[in-house]
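Morning, I've got a small favour to ask if you have a moment. It would help a lot if you went through both lines with me. I owe you a coffee for this, so here goes:
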Amino acid sequence: MQAEGGQCSTRPIAARLALWQNRASWSPDPPVLPYEYFVGLRYTRAKRRNHFISFISMTSMAGIALGVAALIVVLSVMNGFQKELRARILGVASHVQVSGFDGGVSGWPQIAEDAKRHPQVVAAAPYVMAQALLSFDNTVQGALIRGVTPELENTVAEFGQSMKQGALGNLAPGEFGIVLGSELARNLGVRMNEKVTVIAPQGQVTAAGVLPRLKQFRVVGIFEVGMYEYDSGLALIDLADAQKLYRLGDRVSGVRLRLKDLFAAPVVTSDLQLTLRSDVYVSDWTRSHANFFRAVQIEKRVMFIILTLIVAVAAFNIVSTLVMAVTDKQADIAILRTLGAAPGSIMKIFIVQGALIGFIGTIIGVAAGVVLAVNVDVVVPFIERNFGIQFLAKDIYYISDLPSELVWGDVVVIAAVSFGLSLLATLYPSYRASRVNPAAALRYE
């Protein structure tokens, strides 16, 4: 290897190679650190004469760290959004739903009892679902009417936590009360204790012709779950009132079930389809909202690919670093070859050098990304407060805070991909180093 003064000195390398060979001959244990790793680590930490190589190495390391940190934070935020939206959707929708093929089911208590025999089912509640027009003053709005039993509905949904005014328990059979979504109430211009007219689509035959069935309901509550689909198009009435309005008798549209583990819904659905009677159909939330959750998952994968390309660009800067390092160290490579180093050993030296850059960058990125992902609820308000910006405006988005959920499986995958790209980037420069001709390299030394 060359000394700092520029003169070539082979004594240190020769002595070290001889020392390792002697250790291998008399020591029962192999060397703790093979010389390829020693030289590669020495090249990484030594003060280079070419400072430009050091600058590119630091840039590559910083780029990898930045890309890894960004990838961890973005995926954590997307996981948080997915969890938050899933919680809001399932606060209104059911985990599993049992319905009839002809739009109605009789004998729902027996269905609920049979379903509860499954170890995953913890609660069951009947419902009536139908369309209607709601009218107040001169405003008419279409909506879905859901007839519920308040004490049972609170066991399968979370309306009790979403009530802005009134309570779900205000619904009582025969009193014709109604609970509206916040956007639906705002569009109609209706307030608490005012009466809205519910117009059922089924006609009523009279001497004057077919007339729509009308019934006035008093607003006894307003809820807001944070999903526009429900807040603007769902209204709740008592189950008995819904059966009267739609002339169902003792029939219901179906039975909603709540599970211990919502992710077990597909398995529970298959089990119940086999055990329940044959005139009912069983579905779960993964089917009723499949397109939505599939879109979120696809978006997450696309973001992973895009941000991985950023990591790849930074990782392949290692190619430039090692190519220049190989050019700068040609004389050293030639000396090692004349001392008996094999081409594979030369490759290992520069693979170690590049892998160390990628490893350090990955570790720094993982540490920074985890810290940011865990503290998004602190970092984002700090940025908004000091720079006068707002990422999610409260008057536009229901979710005004950036949620974050750190999944360690994602962190492991990101770290593995980053380090793998770093190793891949070392192959060509290392191969080029192993092909250096000792005679040509030492000709002008």
About this structure: The mean pLDDT is 81. The first strand starts at residue 96 and ends at 100.
